[in-house]
User: Fold these one by one.
Assistant:
Number 1:
Amino acid sequence: MPILRDDHTAALAGIHAQGGELLERIQDVLDQSTLSAPIERLLRTTAVRRETLLLDVEMLERERGDLPKAANTERALLEAIADWVHTQLTDESSLIRRLTEAETQWRQVILEALEQDWTDQEQDVLQALVEHSDEFIDELAVLQTTL
């Protein structure tokens, strides 16, 4: 493993770590909250797909000779607790807003990384992340309008 990361390995590490934190956050929200059926279903299906996509990113990191960095589970738990508190004090629309904001920030990190020159396989994985993120944001927006 190299001591210093180049632009590509640094981008992959950031995408993987931040995506892992979002996944942990979603799983913590599911574990600690009583959610409406539509949002629970969305979060469960998103978590399953996100886990698979993050494994693909981890594989890319390893192929570049880097070891994946673990997500900051403490930060993810704190965000999930804040999500829960906001939901208890208001309604699920605040949870949806918070998740949309976090997802949008992560999506931007991926889009910035896509500006680099990647192999076809890496490009495909990163593009799949963007498409998954877009779908999640769109589905959150639909749920927001129904509340």
Number 2:
Amino acid sequence: MMTNATLTLEGGPELSGEIVDTGADYIRIRATTEMTQEQMAQYAGGLIEIDGKMQKVMLESAIPVPDDEEVIELTMRRFTPSA
């Protein structure tokens, strides 16, 4: 089962999507959006909510999914929570 996530970009829109991969310091989601890759590049980061937990993330890349023009794959780096 895919886990859903909600990404709120700093000063930008909220995107919902499914997590496709996670690691110790990164999260990759596929989100449906009408924004282009160039528009996504304007945003540096935001907050992502996964299972009710909020994490601050930095947007690393936004790559359109070839088979679906409304879906973009976002790779984000997690900020280490401050102690």
Number 3:
Amino acid sequence: MTSQNSVLGLGDAVTDDKTPFKSHDAEIPMAISEEKFNGDRLRWNKTTAGFFLLGVLASLPAAVTTTASNETFSGLTGLYEVVASASAAIISFGGPFLIRYVSYDQCTILCTVASLLSYIICTLPHPLGDGKENLAGPVIGTILAGFVYAFGTNVYLSVAAFFPAEAVLGLSVGSGFGIILGPLLYIGLEAAYKQSWRRTFLTLLSTVVIIPIVWWGLVDKTRRTAAERSRRESGSGRAVAENTQPLGDEAFAESSIGTTDEWSLQAHQAGNLKPGFGPKRSRLQLVFKRLVPKYVVPLFLCTSSATISSLGTSPSLQTLDRLRNKPEGDIQFQLGFLAYGTAQFLFSTFSSVYHIPLIWIWTGAEISLLAIGLVQLFYPFLTYYGVWIVVMFLVGGCVGGGVTNTNYKIARDFQRAGEPDEVRSFAMSFAGLGNFGGDAIGGALAILVQQLSTTRLVPGPRG
């Protein structure tokens, strides 16, 4: 998720004066003296606030349904993650292609409606008898929550390519904060409603209306218009013709829809600006030859390991009664997830200021934490619940650092390479595939861990 002199400043034009770049139907004034870039650091302004809130609202339904998953999917907590992340992974792969044909305004409306339905439908299961309930409501509601998280992330990362650096960083930090806010709201409301998770879900419906307010009220209209124009031209094929023509400096500035930055301008002047998508360069080639091996695979391993720890190992430890000095009831699982979400937010924020884009480091640390948790199931050496909370905190921290630094690295690498707007925007929108794909596979493996451990292992402290 950056630069020197604005590697992530995808929306900042670098000129020698204060002359604005014009983009046919949008004029974007870029007075450098008024909008100084502090390198690639996170700054608080209207852009940051808008994208921060979009990140929170995109992740909130998924965070709430995750916190409730040990109640809504009792005994099959990992099933929740399979359901949520399978839909998210599909959207993460197909979303960047779909966005070319659906306007960003329509995408925002779609996210709003899906968020609304996710909360409502989750509350609809009916009893089957013998104390069992139909899981159809939670399954469908969870699918919608996963859709909002993945599709919203795709859409707003794509739009962020037309904004200054803090848009991408604000979105990442907001997404991390949503993972804290969801458990806090859920735990607090459920306590107020005497453990009625359905009333808690219905109360959270009120948060949905904030999505369109933020999109149309806080996100700069001029840059939204520029992003929409680029999307239309990319979908119609017009952008291919424009990006493959040789351009002079003035034409380059105008065709870039006001998003020219110092790295891209230098690349163009040196003759290094790459062409856009066309017959000789397809989106699928970019995905499988560059995005998947370099960015998706390490993030996939990182998030899948975290999911196994949080939704497989953690509830299994609760069922097997492996830890001492623990709280009673499902609050044990909920506090663990809260620690996970808190660390994800803190590490995501830290990574927005101090970047560690060696993403395999985050992956290696996450796999090591997974191994610790699995050993704990068989030979408990983390005797106290408080120690496990620390482990869950570190699990969430590695996810936050891994996701933020992966997004940062994609933006930085593609911008430094002199990629045109449509390529950078597509690459950014594809950044979530490793995240949600890892969650889906991790959820399936979490089911395996939970089922095997609770059926094959003897409850109680061991070792």
